[in-house]
Amino acid sequence: MIRPGGFRGVAFGTADDGDGRSDKATSRSISRSLGIAEHWAWVSQVHGVAIAEAAEPGNIGSADGIVTSVENLPVAIATADCVPVVLEGRGVAAVVHAGWRGTAAGVVEAMLEALSKRGTPPERAAIGPAIGPCCYEVGPEVAAEFGPHVTRTTWGTISVDLPGAIAAKLEPLPVWRSGDCTYTSEELYSFRRDRTSRRQVAVGWLPSGLRS
User: Fold this and answer.
1) Residue ranges per domain, the chain?
2) Where are the alpha helices (H) located in the chain, listed in sequence order?
């Protein structure tokens, strides 16, 4: 698991860590390594802007963001090129699954608004491994959604810096960025590279005693 420095409850998985959303053995293994509860909350990801609130473990419905104020309740999303984001605030943890469709539609802004309305604004954010601008070849219809974040792949075609676009949406929060590209790293799943159905997870949680 990748643990960003300075964060209290954030971890990004690799291919070797597995997908612990509904695989009990995998979630147990990951949870033991992180020192967190074995039972997680997750969502059915739909590339939209819906935000769900988790009060207990299990699948809590169709959404692309999860927020919780329950201590030691891990919330998780899974990716294999899309951008995983974990946010921390006083008494809150949140995760976001941000593909290009969700990012263009405003899933990051939806999460920021949801946290603000709850009275728990985020204090910092972490962006995990995702497909990088080196490899994220897109068509003109996608590029048109991302203005200053349009660039070129290493082979010269049109590309989008999706993690960069998301980091800009999170300003002025302090943002940690992985920098690992799922397409080029053999330690990470990539749908673009392998057409795999497998995913790595991003997990956020509120450690006990940090609710206030």
Assistant:
1) 10-204
2) 24-34, 100-105, 107-117, 140-143, 162-170, 191-194
* 3 within 8 A of 10, measured Cβ to Cβ: yes
Reduced DSSP (H G I as helix, E B as strand, rest coil) percent helix, strand, coil of the chain, to 5 = 25, 30, 45
Q: 209 with 160: CB under 8 angstroms?
A: no
Q: Are 120 and 90 in contact (CB under 8 A)?
A: yes
Cβ atoms 112, 96 nearer than 8 A: no
Mean pLDDT of the chain: 96
Asked if 39 and 50 count as a contact pair (C-beta separation under 8 A), the reply is: no
Q: Is the dihedral of CA 111, 117, 119, 121 positive or negative?
A: positive
Q: Match 């960003």 to its residue by tokens.
A: 4
10-204: CATH, from 3.40.640.10, 3.20.20.80, 3.40.50.720, 3.60.140.10? 3.60.140.10
Tokens of 54: 């988790």
Angle at 83 between CA 81 and CA 86, to 5 degrees: 140
pTM of the model: 0.94
CA distance 212 to 165: 31
- pLDDT attached to residue 89: 95
Per-position DSSP letters for 34-75, written without gaps between them: HT--S--EEEE--SS--EEE-SSSEEEEE-SEEEE-SBT--E
Residues 128, 202 contacting (CB under 8 angstroms): yes
Determine the average pLDDT of the residues in 39-63.
Answer: 97
